[in-house]
Design a protein that fits this description.
The protein is of the alpha/beta class. The chain has helices spanning 2-38, 123-141, 153-162, 172-189, 206-214, 221-241, 245-255, 265-272, 306-318, 327-340; strands at 41-42, 64-73, 84-94, 99-105, 110-113, 117-120, 147-151, 166-170, 200-204, 260-261, 279-286, 290-295, 298-303. The chain contains ten helices and 13 strands.
Length: 343
C-alpha cells in the first residue's frame, strides 16, 4: 500500500513537472514571438492624418479588415517616403470566413491627392508617405483603410529565398525583360544572381521572381504587371502556409526588420495566428473600366466613370449591393471624366 501511494505521488509530481515544463516552453515561445515582432519597423506617427470621406456610409465595411500593401519603387531600398509606390494592393480580409481578396491599383491611375491636386496615385506616397497614400485611396474610392505594410525589393527577394523559391510560368516575351530586371536587382542589392535560361513553368528564386513581378514593357503594360504581382503574392502566401516552424522563424527574423507598418506586435500576432485559415479567393486590377493615354505629355490610366468603378470595387471586395458613392467621389468622377475626354 505504501509503495502504491509512493508511485501515485511520484506520478503526480511528474505530471506537475511536465505541466511546468510545457508552461515554460510556451512562455519562451511567446516571448520569442513577441520579441521578433518588435523587430519590425513600427511607424504610426501620421495615423491621425489619414483621411476618409465624411459622408461615407457602407455598413459592409465593418465586416472586413482592409490593409494596403505598398511595394516602393526605390533603388536604394528606402521605405518611408520620397519614393514612389511601385505596387499598391488592397488586401481585404473577410473577418467571418477568413477569405482574402486582392485588388491592385494601377500606379498611373489619375486621382485627386488631398491638398496636392490631381496626379498619378503612386505620387501620393512620394509626397506624403503612407498617410497621404491611404488618404488618397480612401477619398477617391470611398474606403476607410487605416492599416498599411510597406516592403521593398530586398524584402520580397528574401521572403521567396527563405521559402525555397516559387513556381511561375514565364513566357518567351517575358524572358528577356525579366533578365534585364535581374541585372538591375543585382546592382541594387549587391548580388550576383543569374537570369533564367529559358521560358516555361519553373522554380525561380527571390531575385528572379521579383524581376518577374516588375516586368512592365510587354503586351498589357502595367495592367499585366499588376497581374504578375498578384501571382507572386499568391504564390508566396500559399508556400508560407505549408512552411515548417523553423522556416517561418527564419523567415520572420530575416524579413521583419525590412518592413514598415502601423500594425503593432499584438495586431500582427492576431493576424499570424489565423494564417492557416486564410485563403486568397479572388483578385483583380483597378480601375475595372479604364482608358490609358497621355494628357499634357504624361501617361495616365483614367477611370472611365470613376463613380461606376467605385461601385464595382465595393461589390468585388465587400459584396455590396446598390452602393451609392459619396458626393466627393461623384465630384472627382465628373472632373476626371472631363479631363479624360478633353482634346
Amino acid at each position: 500500500m505504501k509503495e502504491k501511494r509512493k508511485k501515485k505521488k511520484q506520478g503526480r509530481l511528474f505530471r506537475i513537472l511536465l505541466i511546468e515544463v510545457v508552461v515554460v516552453i510556451m512562455l519562451f515561445i511567446g516571448v520569442k514571438i513577441f520579441d521578433t515582432f518588435k523587430s519590425i519597423n513600427y511607424d504610426n506617427d501620421d495615423d491621425k492624418q489619414i483621411q476618409q470621406n465624411d459622408d461615407l456610409d457602407n455598413p459592409q465595411l465593418e465586416g472586413y479588415r482592409n490593409i494596403v500593401v505598398f511595394g516602393v519603387d526605390s533603388r536604394q531600398n528606402a521605405l518611408e517616403d520620397s519614393t514612389h509606390s511601385d505596387t499598391i494592393i488592397i488586401v481585404s480580409i473577410n473577418n467571418k470566413t477568413k477569405d482574402i481578396k486582392l485588388a491592385s491599383i494601377y500606379r498611373d491611375t489619375y486621382v485627386n491627392i488631398p491638398n496636392e491636386g490631381y496626379d498619378k496615385i503612386n505620387a501620393a506616397y512620394f509626397k506624403g508617405g503612407y498617410s497621404l497614400a491611404l488618404s488618397t485611396i480612401n477619398t477617391n474610392f470611398d474606403l476607410d483603410i487605416k492599416e498599411y505594410v510597406t516592403v521593398n525589393f530586398q524584402a520580397v527577394v528574401n521572403v521567396i529565398d527563405e521559402l525555397g523559391g516559387i513556381t511561375i510560368d514565364v513566357t518567351d516575351e517575358e524572358l528577356k525583360t525579366l533578365n534585364g530586371y535581374v541585372r538591375e536587382l543585382n546592382r541594387i542589392n549587391g548580388t550576383d544572381v543569374k537570369g533564367l535560361a529559358s521560358s516555361g513553368t519553373q522554380l525561380v528564386n527571390g531575385t528572379q521572381a521579383t524581376a518577374y513581378a516588375r516586368i512592365r514593357y510587354t503586351a498589357g503594360g502595367d495592367f499585366k504587371r499588376t497581374e504578375r504581382q498578384r501571382i507572386v503574392l499568391s504564390k508566396i502566401f500559399e508556400k508560407a502556409k505549408k512552411a515548417d516552424l523553423a522556416t517561418m522563424t527564419s523567415l520572420i527574423d530575416e524579413i521583419f526588420p525590412q518592413v514598415y507598418t502601423n500594425l503593432n506586435s499584438l495586431e500582427l500576432i492576431g493576424l499570424a495566428k489565423d494564417v492557416l485559415s486564410y485563403n486568397i479567393v479572388d483578385e483583380t486590377g483597378f480601375p475595372f473600366e479604364k482608358d490609358a493615354h497621355t494628357y499634357k505629355k504624361v501617361s495616365y490610366v483614367f477611370p472611365i466613370d470613376l463613380q461606376a468603378n467605385v461601385v464595382k470595387l465595393h461589390e468585388f471586395l465587400f459584396e455590396s449591393t446598390n452602393y451609392t458613392t459619396t458626393k466627393t467621389v461623384q465630384d472627382y468622377s465628373t472632373y476626371i471624366e472631363g479631363i479624360r475626354t478633353s482634346k
